[in-house]
Amino acid sequence: MKKTTLWKRLAVGLTLVGMLGGSGMALAAESTLSGYDRAAAARKTYEKMMGRQTTGLEKTDPELDAMLKEYIYGDIARQAKLPSREQHLLTLAVLVTQQNQSLLDKNVQGALQDGVSPLEIRETVYQLAPYIGFGRVADAMTTVNGVFRKNGVALPLPADGTTTDEDRFDKGLAFQVGTYGERINQMRANTPEEQKHLQDDLSAFCLGDIYTRKTLDLKTREMITVAAIGTLGTGEPQFISHVRGLLAAGASKEEVIGVITVMNPYIGFPRTLNCLKNANTVFAAK
Questions:
Q1: How far apart are the C-alpha atoms of 154 and 147, rounded to whole Å?
Q2: CA atoms within 13 A on the CB side of 206
């Protein structure tokens, strides 16, 4: 009876496949992945964004090399619907957060040759300091500056700070309240006395010293911050808060999804889907 039942199920399955035939093809045609030459698009985009660099996998792991290039530079670059400048900066933010120095080196080189300025690259790394710490940022700048030197970029780059010791807290708090709302003042009022110094540091350092710097606008800085916190995977409330901040800075829902899309090849699907779930809670509340 068991064998008969199994064969009946197989027969029904094969019949359904045969009946679907053309409709099955129609379902495939509706995929977002169809309708373009993926390999050709990947080659063109890779050359634009990365130049003639090799991944180092071409001879030892050609299948992995092809998967990497066709997924990142074929699928993802097309799906993200963000300019290549933003895609470069977001990729750098993810790689710095992950401490992936080998890919960081290659992507800094790619960004430079694709027209991203040294100041934009540096400011992307500096933006990460309040979120991933000075240790990772200092190591990343060693790698970044090595690429700058190879490309004849004079160091140090011009200063971009806009605050002083006298005004960094006031400017930071004003920026914080103006961007994230009156709830910041309520949060400060509810903070226990022995913890207030950390709230002051948040306002003065994260918002005053970092967010008021030049070169990158607020929307770009929030994109970078969302990418870093999402890559860390440990700050759901902070991720949601900065998705709100990104939308408040003028980003569209599609651009937020684009940020998460660019992150995906480097952070994997579990973390990507969690970021998307948290972003959707923000979209639903709008």
A1: 11
A2: 16
